[in-house]
Amino acid sequence: MKHARKLYSLFSLLALVALLATACTPAATTAAPTAVPPTAVPPTAAPPTTAPEPTEEPAPEIGTEAHPIKVLFVPSVDANMIVSGGEVMAEALKEATGLVYAVSVPTSYAATIEEICASPDDTMAFIPAQGYVIANQLCGVDVAFKAIRRGWGVYWAQFIVRRDSGIETLEDLDGLSWAYPDAGSTSGYLAPLVYMKELGIEPGETVESGGHPQVVNAVLNGEADFGTTFFSPYAVPEGETRWAVGDAPDVPDDVIESCAPNEQGLFCGDYQVLDARANVREEAPDVVQQVKILGLTSPIPNDTLSFSPDFPAELRAQIEAALVAFAETDAWGESIGSEDFYGWSGLEPAQDEEYDLIRAMVEEAGITLEDL
């Protein structure tokens, strides 16, 4: 019994000590949970709503119906003749190359230059030496061929007056009224202008007539004292020596009264007139009896066939070969070979440096495209 009481007292003491120890221990501080900011979830990006770029249709190929090759002719003679003859050429070239062509006659020499420069990859143009030089300088137009007329690779400008005018020498032209075709014409304007400057001749009033036939009519009708147009040597009867530099430019005096037109052209006996007077033979059959050639300038390189600067080389080669072949056909005479058209009896390759003489003339005269 006594022993049991001792054990009970011991257990009570231990319990008290444990209780006191617990009471003296500082209470554990429970840390508040750290707030974790919610993770921002970016909204799902919507796919771009930009409309897709429109797909450009490829440009039509050059030489097709949708993109024909432009063929330009300067308006030096009757536009109807140029268009009809040009279509003959276009059809022959189409048959040879399979390409499509569109013939046009711009309103002036300057408009022709502007058109070929504005269409750098699809245009060919029949332009005279001055027009070629200016177009080459402006945008790099490149010469391919020059005209051959009855064996000549050059031609001349002629001064014409009425036979009853009393004008006998070029010096007599000083102060007189001058009719010319267009300021872009090499033979009608540039070459005579430079030639007159060299001779000290200062013309008076000027009349821009629009074409070589119109100049002849202006002189014939008294609208100007003298005019300047292209000159091609007359053709001589079979068996006679052809005209040569230094010979009188007009047909022999003893055949002048016989001059009259026929279906083949303007003839004085067996001599055929091939200068600008022949282009007015229908409305003025006595033009040779009324209008004479006073004199000529120095030779001028013949007019050109030139291509726009970026014309495709492969197509150009096809066209050049086709033109050479076309020049050997009868149809050539119904086109550019006609004396009522440009009178090209043939063509031959030309080089740019052949036109350096014209460059010098253009520079001397101070002519720009704006002047034309």
Describe the structure.
With 372 residues, the chain is an alpha/beta fold. The protein has two domains: 147 residues, D-Maltodextrin-Binding Protein, domain 2; 147 residues, Periplasmic binding protein-like II (D-Maltodextrin-Binding Protein, domain 2), CATH 3.40.190.10. 31% of the residues lie in helices and 18% in strands. The chain has nine helices and 15 strands. The strands form three sheets. The protein has a six-stranded mixed sheet, with helices on both faces. Strands 5, 6, 7, 8, 12 and 13 form a six-stranded mixed sheet that branches. A three-stranded antiparallel sheet has the order 9-10-11, with no helix packed on it. β1, α2 and β2 form a beta-alpha-beta unit. α3 packs parallel to α4 and α5 crosses α9. The longest helix is centred in the N-terminal third of the chain and has 23 residues. The chain starts with a helix and ends in a 7-residue tail after the last helix. The N terminus is likely disordered.
